[in-house]
Amino acid sequence: MTAGKVKKAVFPVAGLGTRFLPATKAVPKEMMTVVDKPVIQYVVEEAIEAGIEHFVFVTGRNKAVIEDYFDIQYELESTLKARNKNAELDLLSSILPKAGSTSFTRQQEPLGLGHAVWCARDIVGNEPFAVLLPDMIMKSEVACLRGMVDLHAVSGGNVIAVEECAPELAHRYGIVARGDTVGDGFRITGMVEKPAKGTQPSNFFINGRYILQPEIFDILETQERGAGNEIQITDAMLKLLKQQDFTAYHYKGVTYDTGAKDGFIMANIAFALDRPDIRGLVEADLKALVAALK
Ligand code: G1P
User: Fold this and answer.
1) pLDDT at 116 (0 to 100)
2) Average pLDDT for residues 18-40, to the nearest whole number?
């Protein structure tokens, strides 16, 4: 088990996005835009801010556009050049990952998050790695994964980001049990995926950011199905907890679940209000809308 540098991040992007049909019939949910950037871009930027050097996407059928998004678009760029659209060209080059720093592998069957992570095992190899669930996009002073990487440099082992939720919402998430305080977080003493209502060991839910040791892959290899009849990463982590430390990073920023309609809309509003170019207009329109509600 190492506290070595976390250089690779896994993005499970194989989900069908059924909550966003009909849009997701042809567009992967990770490509839906919050203001003017696809959701996946926000999550990749969080990883970059945390020092991640290699980006592993676990895709599925109908997700090829994600691979295209992280590539050069020659026709578009030559047209922009011909029209002297330098700002747009700069924008495109600023988000282009370094050549060779992305990998794409497919989850052939929708067997669950644990199975999706396991599909990345050959690319990750024998080193600690991050997992970022692209549905969850975050807004905070210190990026969530950055805080986790800093905690991991001290704690070693495995680090999971958690937030507090209302007790009546705990059954929607993976929930951890709280042990002793460690730095910005605490030692995790147990965890459960989607606990039955009223049985949760705490109100700290797993918010979709993980730093895991590679031994998780051996466990996932034989992990049986759990909640929702899917292979769950939380069940595999609970097994690894018997051999290795898990530390919770208590994330204090805001998280938007863009996989839910309300979270997606709120993310659009919140990120639009952060943008100097459109803030004024959006704010005025929002105020008018809210006033009309009364
Ligand atoms: C997954 C994880 C769960 C976590 C959640 C955060 O669940 O299995 O532990 O709390 O993401 O969004 P899902 O949303 O895929 O049901």
Assistant:
1) 98
2) 94
Residue boundaries of the structural domains of the chain: 8-167+179-187+205-259
What is the Å distance from ligand 1's center to 223 Cα? 17
> 200 C-alpha to center of ligand 1: Å?
15
User: In whole angstroms, what is the distance from residue 157 CA to residue 6 CA?
Assistant: 11
Please indicate whether residue 128, judged by its CB atom, sits closer than 6 Å to ligand 1.
no
CA-nearest residue, atom 7 of ligand 1: 173
Percent of the chain at pLDDT above 90? 91
Give the closest residue (by CA) to ligand 1 atom 3: 174
Architecture of domain 8-167+179-187+205-259: Alpha-Beta Complex (3.90)
Ligand 1 geometric centre to CA of 208 (Å):
6
> What percentage of the chain's residues is helix, strand, coil (to nearest 5)?
40, 25, 35
pLDDT at 2 over 90: no
Torsion of CA 157, 162, 167, 169, to 10 degrees: -110
Q: Residue 255 is inside which H or E element, if any?
A: strand 254-257
